[in-house]
User: Fold this.
Amino acid sequence: MKLIQSMPGMPNKVTEEEVDSFLENKLNIQLATIDEEGYPSIQPLWFLYDKESSKIFISTQKTTRKIHNLHKISDKIYFSIDDENFPYKGVKGRGIARILEDVDLNIPITEKIITKYLGTLDNPLAQMIMDNARKGIQVVIEITPNFFSAWDFGKAT
Assistant:
């Protein structure tokens, strides 16, 4: 993992272990894709971070604007995950996104994302998303980050 300090003047650097731990949180990822007019299009989404590969996974319906942008415009993305509570901290970066359409691969990834955020697969929203995954309506975006840029104002002292 390439780690950049977002605030180079901080007395204590954010470590790779702290980034890995932070990316296990239940905050939303803000995903930016590029639209037809060249503007960023930003969407808040649930995500799953795999620290072994340093990849980020997002499950979404294949008819969404972000999927359209990734298919038709560019596979380049920017992302940010930040905690709005003081002391502020977060991780951002850019990378390449790949759309995974293999239902057998997407089902376990989607299950992990739902379980992370809802704690169960036994609720109506979880069941709807899983039904969409089984039907191939739901796809997974696999993000390979070029770098992580991290900050933590709690490390200022």
User: Anything to note?
Assistant: The radius of gyration is 16 Å. The chain has one domain: 3-155. The first strand starts at residue 3 and ends at 5. The CA atoms of residues 61 and 137 lie 6 Å apart.
